[in-house]
């Protein structure tokens, strides 16, 4: 966390319009390795737009994205993935009919032999299942059976599989959109612990969340957006909580 | 047979391991065992039908009759294999019956002017694939809201083309090789049965081992996620309609060979047989779920029921009623499976 190192993810002057609506205007964020950055704001504040611009779903109209100090262009989801940025979407983007290994490797399957056109190559199922099981073990994600389709798993397990998938392939940044929104108390606990483990393994973590308690607990810094602009950046502590809430809703803190 | 049926259940690893392992909790094993039983449901139903047919008619299990069943089921089976892929992507192809007729008519016309056996077969296959390609391309790039619409339109267009090109009349004559594929047998095993077996193995290879097949299931499971995972969703969707068209062309070869000619009335309602076979086999219209073996079982079930009722001199008008009832029964089993899966999920959530 030395200040001299460039952050894993830096966004400068991010601006995005949808027609006449300004979704983002001159937004700046830094996400450093080994740190959880919370992105806060009311509905429509621009949080989702910002992470979609970083994960390649949308494209910024103006502004730059840097990974480790190098300007990059996450122009598509695939490009963002190649930059080591993985996103856990709120809808999880899981394939309910497939098992965790197939979910992990969707779109980046291990295949052989190399001389065949990619589409008709054989999938290396065994290798993918083994790697997936290893990742799930390393992240202490309890999945009873790695052959079960994820559609049969509980909400918490599904969330954990989606987070583990991101962690397995991210080299720089893991972005999580409302990771605990659909979960009960105990399942939220598991997912929060998992996020902290990822942080300790040296990822830069960006979390979008409405759950103030969770933010207070896991975030090292919080950036508050309102109507597409950055309105504050502070360290979540019990004594700053009221200030954060005020920034989100727009009263005077 | 046991490992084979377990494999047909779709989750060989999970169910087997769970049963062998010292189950941490017996309550989880119960629903998952029930689930495994329901997954071989279609095969069990076929077994029941076959046993009943054999008990009621001594002709049923003669080699000649079995050959008959296989040859009568061949076209449905081939159409069902491809229809399965379409349905796995949340689609439907209503045009295969008309496409079959059009392909057969084109083949007959080519034979009339060229006479080359290979060329006739190529003409039928290419016609089928071209119709499928149009289905897929207009569906995807024309942004039609649902494949039902595109393939319903093609059902009409292809049948009309077949009638127009043939002047509404059957065109007789097919090259030797086509007649052989469609109408002849090695011993009592019809050539068409070998064709079905070969295509089923290829489809199995595609769905279980090949990347493209995995993508077909991913697209059916969650198209948005597939897109975000950089899977070429549009091309995958187009490809299943092309394969469905190829199946129609193959069906045309068999049908034209058996009847030694091409007729614009070929394949009427064949699309419904194919869809029924896939549905009896437990594939879900919500996409992402279905198995090659079960689709074949569905096709055989339709073939066996029709054959048995013919042998038993049951009123022919009863046949569609029975087949309709079987469809409902099969889907009811599928509904039951969905319920059990839901329960399994709740049990797991409570435990974790």
Would you spell out the secondary-structure blueprint of this structure?
The complex is a heterodimer of chains A (253) and B (352).
Chain A: E1 9-18, E2 21-31, E3 35-40, H1 47-54, E4 62-67, E5 70-72, H2 77-82, E6 85-88, H3 100-104, E7 111-112, E8 122-123, H4 125-138, H5 155-169, E9 173-177, H6 185-200, E10 204-208, H7 212-218, E11 221-226, E12 229-234, H8 241-249
Parallel strand pairs in A: 3-10, 3-11, 6-9, 9-10
Antiparallel strand pairs in A: 1-2, 1-4, 4-5, 7-8, 11-12
Helix pairs in contact in A: 5-6
Chain B: H1 2-8, H2 12-20, H3 26-39, H4 41-56, H5 63-88, H6 96-113, H7 117-141, H8 147-166, E1 171-172, H9 176-183, E2 185-186, E3 189-190, H10 191-209, H11 211-221, H12 223-228, H13 233-259, E4 261-262, H14 270-280, H15 292-311, H16 318-351
Helix pairs in contact in B: 1-2, 3-16, 4-15, 5-10, 5-13, 5-14, 5-15, 6-7, 6-8, 6-13, 7-8, 7-13, 9-13, 10-11, 11-13, 14-15, 14-16
Number of domains of chain A: 1
Query: What would CATH call the architecture of chain A?
Result: 3-Layer(aba) Sandwich
Q: How much β-strand is present in the residues of chain B?
A: under 5%
The pLDDT mean of chain A sits at: 89
Distance between the termini of chain B: 35 Å
CATH topology title of chain A? Rossmann fold
Query: What portion of residues of chain B is helical?
Result: over 70%
Integer average pLDDT of chain B: 88
**Helical segment tally of chain B?**
16
Task: Supply the CATH class of chain B.
Answer: Mainly Alpha
Biggest chain pair contact, residues each? Answer: A-B, 41 and 35 residues
Total domains of chain B: 1
> Roughly how many Å is the radius of gyration of chain B?
21 Å
Q: Helix fraction of chain A?
A: 25-40%
Please provide the ordered H/E string of secondary-structure elements of chain B.
HHHHHHHHEHEEHHHHEHHH
Strand order of the largest sheet of chain A: 6-9-10-3-11-12
- By DSSP, the count of extended strands of chain B is 4
The helix-and-strand class of chain B reads mainly alpha
**Low-pLDDT residue intervals, each spanning 5 or more residues of chain B:** 1-26
């Amino acid at each position: 966390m030395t200040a001299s190192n460039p952050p894993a993810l830096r966004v400068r002057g991010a601006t995005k319009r949808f027609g006449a609506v300004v979704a983002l205007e001159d937004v700046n964020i830094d996400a450093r390795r080994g740190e959880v950055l919370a992105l806060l704001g009311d509905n429509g504040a621009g949080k989702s737009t910002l992470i979609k611009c970083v994960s390649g779903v949308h494209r910024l109209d103006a502004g730059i994205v840097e990974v480790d100090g190098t300007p990059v262009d996450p122009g598509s989801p695939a490009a963002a993935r190649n930059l080591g940025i993985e996103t856990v979407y709120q809808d999880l983007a899981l394939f309910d009919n497939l098992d965790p290994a197939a979910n992990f490797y969707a779109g980046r399957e291990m295949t052989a032999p190399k001389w065949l056109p990619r589409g008709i190559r054989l999938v290396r199922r065994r290798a993918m299942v083994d790697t997936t099981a290893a990742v799930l073990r390393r992240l202490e994600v309890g999945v009873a059976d790695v052959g079960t389709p994820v559609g049969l798993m509980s909400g918490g397990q599904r969330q954990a599989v989606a987070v583990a998938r991101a962690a397995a392939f991210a080299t720089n940044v893991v972005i999580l959109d409302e990771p605990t929104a659909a979960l009960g108390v105990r399942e939220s606990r598991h997912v929060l612990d998992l996020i902290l483990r990822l942080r300790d393994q040296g990822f830069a973590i960006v979390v979008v969340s409405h759950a103030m308690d969770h933010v207070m607990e896991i975030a090292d810094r919080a950036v508050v957006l309102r109507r597409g602009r950055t309105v504050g950046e502070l360290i979540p502590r019990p004594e700053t909580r009221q200030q954060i809430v005020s920034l989100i809703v727009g009263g005077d803190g | 047979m046991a490992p084979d049926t377990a494999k047909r259940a779709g989750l060989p690893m999970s169910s087997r391991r769970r049963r062998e392992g010292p189950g941490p909790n017996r309550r989880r094993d119960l629903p998952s065992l029930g689930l495994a039983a329901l997954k071989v449901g279609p095969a069990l139903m076929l077994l029941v039908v076959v046993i009943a047919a054999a008990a009621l008619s001594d002709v049923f299990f003669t080699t000649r009759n079995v050959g008959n069943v296989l040859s009568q089921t061949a076209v449905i089976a081939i159409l069902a294999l491809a229809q399965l892929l379409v349905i796995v992507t949340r689609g439907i192809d209503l045009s295969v019956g008309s496409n079959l007729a059009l392909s057969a008519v084109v083949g007959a016309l080519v034979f009339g002017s060229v006479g080359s056996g290979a060329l006739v077969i190529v003409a039928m296959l290419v016609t089928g694939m071209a119709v499928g390609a149009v289905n897929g391309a207009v569906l995807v790039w024309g942004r039609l809201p649902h494949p039902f619409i595109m393939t319903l339109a093609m059902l009409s267009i292809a049948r009309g083309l077949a009638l127009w090109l043939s002047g509404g009349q059957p065109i007789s004559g097919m090259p030797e090789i086509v007649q052989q594929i469609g109408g002849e047998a090695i011993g009592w095993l019809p050539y068409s049965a070998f064709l079905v077996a070969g295509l089923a193995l290829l489809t199995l290879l595609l769905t279980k081992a090949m990347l493209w097949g995995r993508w077909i299931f991913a697209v059916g499971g969650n198209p948005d996620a597939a897109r975000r995972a950089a899977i070429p969703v549009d091309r995958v969707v187009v490809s299943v309609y092309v394969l469905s068209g190829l199946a129609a062309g193959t069906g045309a070869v068999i049908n034209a060979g058996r009847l030694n000619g091409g007729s614009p009335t070929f394949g009427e309602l064949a699309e419904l047989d194919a869809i029924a076979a896939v549905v009896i086999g437990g594939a879900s219209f919500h996409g992402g779920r279905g198995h090659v073996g079960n689709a074949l079982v569905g096709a055989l079930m339709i073939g066996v029921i029709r054959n048995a009722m013919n042998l038993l001199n049951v009123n022919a008008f009863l046949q569609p009623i029975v087949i309709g009832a079987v469809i409902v029964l099969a889907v009811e089993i599928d509904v039951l499976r969905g319920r059990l899966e839901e329960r399994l999920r709740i049990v797991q959530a409570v435990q974790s």
